[in-house]
Write a structure and sequence with these properties.
With about 200 residues, this protein is mostly beta strands. It has 4 helices and 11 strands; from the N terminus they run H-H-H-E-H-E-E-E-E-E-E-E-E-E-E. It has a 10-stranded antiparallel barrel. A hairpin with a 2-residue loop joins strand 6 and strand 7. The longest helix has 9 residues. The protein is globular, with a radius of gyration of 17 Å.
């Protein structure tokens, strides 16, 4: 999926809009205010915007890890790769994340769960949905797997990918660490790096 137009918003002004609460703020409640400013800045998504940065990526060596990485469009191994993340909202308030690792695109949709999942963050990779708790610990934002499903069918949690994902502020920048592994296979992918607001964003065709 492509974003036809990327409209830069004034991030400082967005942070002061009392009538709108971004997805992560709704899920965190009062804990939102304990997040470092750079984490709040990135997750304040109330308009289309772009962040840029750099990452290092390591894929697992198991042949099934390579196959699964292709299915989920995980980035390929690289010591240093430029990263562009385009954020947008659809008419339902769902956040669309387009992550470009060099020429490689990884696209997901994030939204608030419903019913028993109403306080969980749901991330959709194609037909797979992963419901995660959003937890603030020592000024880091952690994602903790709670449920997963495929084609709407709930899958056993013990078979779910093991995810170590957290965000933090360092050197006045937003930093991320994502590590995904699978039972009997081991590491699928790990990527770490930083992002900063792109103040010179251009339309994406």
């Amino acid at each position: 999926m492509q974003i036809n137009k990327l409209n830069q918003c004034d991030i400082g002004d967005s942070l002061n809009q009392p009538h709108h609460q971004p997805l992560y703020q709704r899920l965190l409640g009062d804990a939102w205010h304990s997040l470092p400013p750079k984490l709040q800045q990135l997750h304040q998504i109330d308009c289309d915007k772009r962040f840029v940065g750099e990452a290092s990526v390591q894929q697992g060596h198991h042949f099934l890890a390579t196959l699964i990485a292709r299915v989920f469009s995980f980035p390929q191994t690289a010591k240093r790769v430029p990263v562009i993340v385009d954020f947008s909202l659809d008419e339902h308030g769902h956040e669309h994340w387009q992550r470009h690792f060099g020429d490689h695109l990884m696209y997901t949709i994030q939204y608030q769960g419903q019913g028993k999942q109403q306080w969980l963050l749901v991330e959709r990779f194609g037909y797979f949905r992963f419901a995660m708790a959003v937890v603030v610990k020592e000024q880091q934002l952690h994602l903790v797997m709670r449920q997963w499903s495929c084609f709407g069918i709930k899958l056993p949690l013990f078979l779910a990918p093991k995810i170590k994902a957290y965000e933090y502020q360092q050197d006045d920048k937003f930093h991320f660490h994502v590590e995904i592994s699978l039972f009997l296979i081991g590491l699928l992918v790990m990527y770490t790096g930083f992002l900063t607001p792109d103040t010179e964003a251009i339309p994406v065709n």
